[in-house]
Task: inverse folding
């Protein structure tokens, strides 16, 4: 298969790379990590919105550019390469799910997502043991709609989010997605810091009013959200791994031992080659899944393969790169540690490698 980017996606890549290079400096990343908002640089978010990148994947009738999951993957790869502090994947996964399954009233939110004035987040995970596709958070029908009760774990970047997509199960309809206002009655947060220094939070709902995101196909909205989330995380991981390898190549070319650059040592070259091969595998699996989704084909197995590679191969790369940096790799004033932290976080999100293999085995 030829996964070469077309002209439009190349333009997206180049624009995103320029914005992340200009805005995601080490000083600003560090400032975002230390802020209450977590991984959110407001100036970067505004720049992405002004450039049209927050709407790049959204349909044209929702104020976007209509480039779909391919545009999302390109944008997230560039974010991962720069480990840029912006909650792109939860916002756009939520928005794309609403674009596909939401009611006309819910879809009216999307132009504001594209221009950066509306932020969403998505609550898919719960405390272990739990399968995101079978949430224990409950949805009960009420006279005026639905009421949600339960706890969702590690909701990404809730600070400033206006609305939340929540996975919950009802006795009548089974698992599904529900949209609720972040300031609705019964909403409470317990803030927690993740490996990436995001200011995430555990969300507790107590008879909180919500609207179903459901176009009549049962758990279709939740299945779409999980599919998009796995692809999005795999795309970020490709960028994270590539950024880590680039830092390693620069460091090893400039650092000398026994009168020779470290990059000329055979054992080091083998480690770098292993990283390169794993990144190529990550990219092929990612774009195979993206191509199937874009074509409207059955992509579930390909998505799980891509997510498994991002968990297993991505973690291998950032771990190897950390090792190749020696002592400086654990110096938090040197940037490579962020790639390791992001890679580690992604590798455990939505269940991690073992869970992905279990799901893949069941699917096959």
Result:
């Amino acid at each position: 298969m030829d996964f070469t980017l077309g002209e439009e996606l190349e333009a997206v890549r180049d624009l995103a790379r320029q914005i992340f290079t200009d805005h995601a400096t080490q000083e600003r990343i560090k400032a975002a990590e230390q802020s209450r908002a977590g991984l959110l640089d407001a100036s970067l978010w505004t720049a992405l919105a002004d450039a049209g990148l927050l709407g790049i994947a959204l349909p044209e009738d929702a104020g976007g550019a209509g480039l779909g999951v391919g545009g999302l993957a390109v944008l997230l790869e560039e974010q991962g390469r720069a480990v840029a502090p912006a909650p792109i994947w939860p916002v756009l996964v939520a928005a794309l799910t609403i674009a596909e399954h939401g009611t006309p009233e819910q879809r009216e939110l999307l132009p504001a997502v594209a221009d950066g004035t509306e932020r969403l987040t998505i609550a898919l995970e719960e405390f272990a043991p739990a399968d995101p596709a079978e949430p224990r958070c409950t949805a009960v029908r009420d006279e005026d709609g639905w009421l949600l009760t339960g706890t969702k774990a590690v909701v990404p970047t809730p600070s400033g989010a206006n609305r939340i997509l929540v996975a919950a199960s009802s006795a009548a309809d089974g698992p599904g997605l529900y949209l609720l206002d972040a300031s609705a009655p019964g909403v409470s947060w317990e803030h927690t810091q993740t490996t990436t220094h995001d200011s995430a939070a555990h969300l507790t709902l107590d008879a909180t009013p919500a609207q179903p995101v459901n176009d009549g196909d049962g758990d279709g909205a939740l299945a779409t959200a999980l599919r998009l989330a796995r692809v999005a995380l795999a795309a970020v991981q490709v960028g994270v791994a590539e950024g880590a390898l680039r830092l390693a190549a620069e460091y090893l070319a400039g650092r000398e031992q026994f009168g020779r650059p470290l990059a000329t040592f055979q054992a080091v070259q083998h480690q770098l080659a292993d990283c390169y091969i794993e990144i190529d595998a990550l990219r092929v699996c990612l774009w195979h899944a993206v191509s199937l989704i874009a074509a409207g084909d059955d992509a579930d197995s390909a998505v799980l393969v891509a997510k498994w590679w991002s968990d297993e191969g991505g973690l291998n790369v950032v771990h190897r790169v950390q090792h190749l940096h020696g002592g400086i790799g654990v110096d938090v004033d040197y940037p490579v540690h962020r790639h390791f932290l992001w890679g580690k976080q992604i590798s455990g999100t939505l269940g991690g490698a073992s869970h992905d293999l279990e799901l893949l085995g069941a699917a096959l």
Summary: The chain has three domains: 7-114, 120-213, 220-363. The CA atoms of residues 315 and 343 lie 6 Å apart. The chain is about 50% helix and 15% strand. The domain at 220-363 is CATH 1.20.140.10 (Butyryl-CoA Dehydrogenase, subunit A; domain 3).
